[in-house]
Batch of 2 targets.
Target 1
Amino acid sequence: MRLIRCSVRWLRPIWPLPLVVMQMAHISEPMFTSSGKRFYEVQVSRGRGKSRVTRRFYPKSGWSEVTVGKELLKFANELERQVHIGEILSRRERKAAEKAEAEARDGVPTVKQYGEDTFMPAKTITMSEQGRCSYQGTLNNWIYPALGEIKMPEVTSGQISRMLVAAQGQGKAHATVVKIYTVCQSLFKMAFMAGDIQVNPMDRVARPKPRKDEVERDGPEAYTAQETLYIMECLEKEPLKWQLFLRIAIDTGMRRGELCGIRWDCVDYENCTIAIRENVAYTPAKGVYSDTSKTRRVRVVDVDPAVMELLKRYQGTKESEFPSPYVFSQSNSDKPMFPSTPEHYCRQFGKKYGINHLYPHKLRHTFASVSITAGADVASISEKLGHKDKSTTLRHYTHSNPEKIKEASQVFRNAVKAAEKHKTDTSE
């Protein structure tokens, strides 16, 4: 019999033993639990300076001594193999690994922690105050309540999708749901690009689609040329201030904040142009404030001479009022007009003259749509609107109208008739 290397405790020989030599396993003498059940302790050395791995082996009742010896050696061999390949750690190492894992987990931020400590500070540098407030509101109202306490790497696509569905289920506007999607996309993309998460859960989240009851709920996104003419005719009955504001909006496609931010020193009567340098915005924290334009560059737009004449008349009336560097200012103040003021006026104006869904941004849509439908160059229109990419103009500000739809239908019919005529001619 070849002897098995044993531990300090005495090993009672088990006869007969298989011809197996254990290199590092040590088997104790039989031991007994308080209930009298027999067991053996098997220890495997892990090398100098490392603690041993100890496991108990419990023979089954009814086994012969030969079977116990065979099964015990199998157990010891398997334990040794598992230790050698790293499948089993010592108790000390297991506790150390668990501790390290817990510490590492504690160092992984939750969605809320990442949003507050990393995401929003970065956005504050790159975004306008208005944009920052919009993002913060979306985080506070939607993302943090649903995902805030979850560790960043543990957020799943399903959790994000359920949050979006919940927002839709509450009847929130499609634009609101898309905003939640956009903020999530930005947040997790930043974390993924920085290596803070290994998988971006947004890769498997589809962009929300509008509910069925939202389709065309607000009517067409732009007015036709005939409808625009009617609006201009109605404006002739309105105060000079609002005649001027909406005429500039119609003629140039300026954003609402850009209109509120026009300064007198940006007006060039000689060349019939207005330089757009500022964008007026409002947040509860800052109130009304002037920021750089959305594109962060000065752009100069041409203005209809008739509109410039209105501007001259209006400047004459303003000289007797409270002086302000802004063309459209608050009453008895040198500060720019609240961006919400034109919205309120447009609603009242629309009700008064039977114009559905009138708001400043729809006039911006109208400028682009009517211009491009009439054959204007898209790149030029994009420049006047202040878009960085003309694809934005095509995607958001071009709309079909009944005349063009009829024209497209007639083109199709003419093509079919031409094919029919060609077939007849060739058959003859």
Target 2
Amino acid sequence: MEKIYKMTESDKGFFGKFGGRYVAEVLRRPIEELEEAFHKCMKDSDFLKELEEIRTDFIGRPTPLYHAKRLSEQLGGAQIYVKLEGLANTGAHKINNAIGQALVAKRMGKTRIIAETGAGQHGVATAAACAKLGLKCRVYMGEVDVRRQQPNVSTMEMYGAEVVPVTTGSRILKDAINEAMRDWAANFSDTHYLIGSALGPSPFPDMVREFQAVIGRETKQQMAERGKKIDAMVACVGGGSNSIGFFEPFINETEPLLFGAEAGGIGPGKGNNASRMVGNDAVDGIMQGFKTRFLQDEDGQAGQTRSISAGLDYVGIGPQLAYLGETGRIKFEAIKDDEALNAVSVFAKTEGVLFAMESAHAGALALKLAPKMRKDQNIVVNMSGRGDKDIFITCPVFRPEEWKVFLQAELERLNAGKDIHFAASMAKNN
């Protein structure tokens, strides 16, 4: 077990049997150049100084660590602390990695950035990073996700990004990744593919973990400053960028307990969820340049997934997380859609903190764990993003009739070409 706990970074691109670099010959050179540039940047004091300045002045780091006192008292168990990554610029943890990779790309002389996005937060972060650094930006997004994440699409475009809806396959995140990789293969001379999660061919899992590790390192320091021991840490897991960054300082240690909340969707069974580590539907496979646990069909193709959260419905999990899950360092649990929605409501009404649907899966797991632990123990849950972006998901659930009236009134107003100030009166008339 000692070897397991020393796996804080890959061994030649592998985490145990997971990871690697399974790519077409045309991508080998740009990936090797990226790996060399990344390692050089991480040893460059000027690069690290610029990164730290941007984290402070642009991202707004460190993000707060919030003690959910009222909720902890109501549950009657462990004290719950919330790492408020949703207060970072652009509203989620994704900006940490976007800025880091964009800076590396600029050092390499790249002028164009492409990215994939599911829930849209990585796309927003990438677009914002490109706007700050003066880089061109194109974001690939599954057509299904475009429909359910319109606020984020609009935000990306306001930052100057070109958003390309992907209409192939299932029209979700996995398909956006495929299109982004095709673009990179054709345009790598001036283009960097800014992967948003801790997956893909090596060195991306190491890069993303390193740029996201600022979350866990801040958390460790903030709890130490309060004189508090961390007994358990909880994060949602799609590809795994927020969770691996959150867990990073603690992987080498036997404590605290680490918990990953996967998308349980509407329940067990193929096509009903996006759980790779929980249940028996996932298999070890190779897809999109790396080996990990995937939800695949009988022909080895990407299987169907289902989740209320666009950011958690990817068919695979980051290779380092798969390894740490198989070895037992991280315990995974599937959280259903209704449990995540309940967590959104509970944290909002009790603590005034609005979780994104992705983060709400972690919040739901914390609600389960806390009552089983002692009052002198502490859970830290990573709120990887805030819920503003999810209004088209949450509003129809929490206030369905009012939402219908609002949408109908807005449609009538827009069709009539009327000013926004007419919206209120139109809603009343309906």
